[in-house]
Amino acid sequence: MEHLEEEMTCSVCLSVYEDPRILQCSHSFCRKCLENLIRSSESYLWRLSMGRLKCPACRGITDIPTGVQSLPVNFALKAIVEKYKNNLRSKTCIEHTRHQLNMYCLKDRKLICGQCLTVGPHKGHPVDDPDVAYMKEQQAASKFLAALNSKNFTGVSSVIRALEEQMTNCKNIVLEDKKEVTLFFDNIIEVLEQKKQDLLAALNDLNLQVADVFAPQIEEMKQIQDEEVDLVSLSSSAQTEESPLIYLDTIHDIRQRMMALKKKQLLPIHPVEIYPRVGQIFKDQYLKTSIGDVSLLPVPKFGIHFENEDYKGIASSPLFTWILVFVLLFTSFILLFFYFNSEISSDLTTRYWTCFSEVMGPVLHFGENHVNAVSHRLSSLYMEFIGHLHSLLKV
């Protein structure tokens, strides 16, 4: 079979002959192959002139006065080729190569070969001629078509429709979730942005507070500095003054202004801090609060806090310590006296409790003037108490 196929192959196109034409040298070629040789720009090797052609196989000369159509058809070769093609169109068995499917198995309803019937899986099955089976099965195609056109043949349409509905529902759910995500984070961003603006506004107010506190003090100190710079300039210019009167008058003015400047008190510098700090607020409150409760957090009140050095000095001074000791001893003495002299307790209670309040009032407000007042008042109160006690004992 392979040798026969080789003999039916055109040496130009290497395919089975199509409309084979024979040359004068008895070699055959496809008509289209010969026409292509004549039309090709590179066919000068085979085309000697418009009416002559050189054979591609043996290079023999063939006259073609009216073209390839004038060459005779190789009918013998053409018949063999047609038969060969018909054999190729007939089906062969897949399991038994080159065996024609020439029988129809009635049990399995399929074409089989002789080998399938004798030694194959269809051994002993009833068979029929393919042409007879064809006549019997002609109505099967229309029945199959009608059944397949039915939407409920396999139910796949319902499954596809259900799957499409599920896909649509899932896509709608995803779309809703995306909207929820957007809305949720937009709300969070809005809350955080509001908190941000509130904190910035509070810090801006603090900035104004800082300016209100320090700007007047700085301005006051700058006036002293300007006076000092003015005196330096005046003193420098006085060194070049040649007139004795003007010089003496200038020196007198400088001296008076220096004395006045020296008496001016400079503002004390106290340690200062800003409280609370934003970083500590974030750490103590914001980072420990859930996102939903951030809006409930109050805006802190920022402020400037100075450490009062005078308070520390007074509290640690010896005078202040002795005053407190005297107050405690005086109070203890009064209580003991009341305990042993219940008859006069009511009279002294009203009188000396008022005096005691007068004494303790200034103590609660620490300052140098208050300390001196407390010391003087305690001395007078003690002397009055002794005199009153002496008069009571005489009675």
From TrEMBL:
Q: Which domain of life is it from?
A: Eukaryota
Q: Tell me the GO BP annotations in alphabetical order.
A: innate immune response; negative regulation of DNA-templated transcription; protein monoubiquitination; protein sumoylation
Give UniProt keywords alphabetically. Membrane, Metal-binding, Transferase, Transmembrane, Transmembrane helix, Ubl conjugation pathway, Zinc, Zinc-finger
Pfam families xrefs: zf-B_box, zf-C3HC4
Read off the InterPro entries from this record: TRIM45/56/19-like, Znf_B-box, Znf_C3HC4_RING-type, Znf_RING, Znf_RING/FYVE/PHD, Znf_RING_CS
> Is Cell inner membrane there in the keyword field?
no
Provide one Gene Ontology cellular component.
Answer: RNA polymerase II transcription regulator complex
| Domain RING-type, chain residue ranges per copy | 10-59
Q: Which SMART domains match?
A: BBOX (SM00336), RING (SM00184)
The answer to keyword Nucleotide-binding applying to this record is no
User: Membrane-spanning regions, if any?
Assistant: 319-340
Q: Where does the B box-type domain start and stop, copy by copy? A: 88-130
GO terms for MF: ubiquitin protein ligase activity; zinc ion binding
The identity of this protein, by name, is Uncharacterized protein
